[in-house]
Amino acid sequence: MKPPLPGAGTALPAAQDEHQVQIHLRKIPLLAGLSNEEIVRVKQELRIRQYGKRDIVLQKGGHGDGLLFLLSGQLQVVDVTEDGRAIGLRMLAPGDFFGEIALISNSTRTASIVAMSDVLVAFLPAAVAMHLFSHSPSVANQMLTHLARKIQRDSEFRSLLSIHNTSRRVYTFLLLMQKEQQGEAGGLAVVDKLPTHQDIANMINTSRETVTRALAALAQQGIVQKEAHRLIIVRPDALQKLVQGP
User: Fold this and answer.
1) In angstroms, rounded to a whole number, what is the distance separating the alpha carbons of residues 75 and 57?
2) β partners of residue 125
3) What single-letter DSSP state applies at residue 63?
4) What is the DSSP letter of 110?
5) Rounded to whole angstroms, what are the CA distances from 201 to 86, 123, 161, 169, 205?
6) 80 and 112 in contact (C-beta within 8 Å)?
7) What is the pLDDT of the chain when averaged over all its residues?
8) Which helix (H) or strand (E) segment is 71 a member of?
9) E strand or H helix at 66, and its extent?
10) What is the pLDDT of residue 193?
11) How many helices (H) and strands (E) would you count in the chain?
12) Is 130 within 8 Å of 103 (Cβ atoms)?
């Protein structure tokens, strides 16, 4: 990882900045319900920055000075253990926002955010974001829904980490990812932008070799089909049975 720098990231030229914002703002679920006037006001306050792969977008321990949106690319939420190991907690996709907990609680960041590819990120200053939370019913409702889902997801993830059988841990992780994305292709369940085997291993506290073996076994049984950057769960019922165990 590259060390964090003050104002890390590269600001876009003004013309490209405005063009990108016009393209993406309505695609951000949190902002989709805003009026045209509110969208214009938000656009005026946003700061757009680009980051390269493995750049640190947010540093754990930093102050919650704003709300951030991922416009393009892929990010990973990362925590560092006491012995210095980086543990991936979850992946972020375009349209997702982050930094909300430190912002709402006026506290420090509880995890770092690392770019897994070249990314485009929008930063909304704290005062503007808090105004939206208190004055826009659509934003407030979506934030409440998001926080409820976050609590549920974190609870499911803690349960996943308590599974002693590491293969079952991999199977459960795949189902949780698919459930979160709700992806489908021709009626089949899909996990888009599947993390690398090493990233999955980091997230569920196992080895890369274990993840590779588990995915290979699923493919051999015809339960999953691996494509370039996604996994198609051909037989979700069979995967569910493996998760439940004997």
Assistant:
1) 9
2) 66
3) B
4) S
5) 11, 30, 11, 10, 6
6) yes
7) 83
8) strand 66-72
9) strand 66-72
10) 74
11) 9, 13
12) yes
| Ramachandran bin of 133, using left for φ above 0, alpha for ψ from -120 to 50, beta for the remaining angles | alpha
Tokens, residue 78: 């990362």
**Can you tell me the distance from the alpha carbon of 144 to that of 46, in angstroms, rounded to the nearest whole number?**
22
pLDDT category at 12 given cuts 50, 70, 90 is low
Return the bridge partners of 188, or none: 185
Name the CA dihedral angle for 232, 29, 143, 150, rounded to a multiple of 10 degrees. Answer: 10
Which pLDDT tens digit goes with each residue over 56-107? 999 888 888 899 999 989 898 888 766 666 677 778 888 899 999 999 988 8
Q: Which two three-digit tokens encode residue 224?
A: 């999953």
Structure confidence at residue 81 (pLDDT): 67
Whole-structure pTM value? 0.71
Alpha-carbon gap, residue 189 to 193, rounded angstroms: 13
Q: Which tokens hold the place of 135? A: 């004055």
pLDDT digits (tens, 9 = 90+) for 187-204: 568 887 788 888 888 888
Tell me the pairing of strands 10-11 and 86-92.
unpaired
Question: ∠ at Cα 155 (78, 111), nearest 5°?
Answer: 20
Helix (H) or strand (E) holding 220: helix 208-220
The identity of residue 116, as a single letter, is M
pLDDT of residue 183: 46
Residue 15, both tokens: 């013309």
Q: Check residue 17 and report its DSSP letter.
A: H
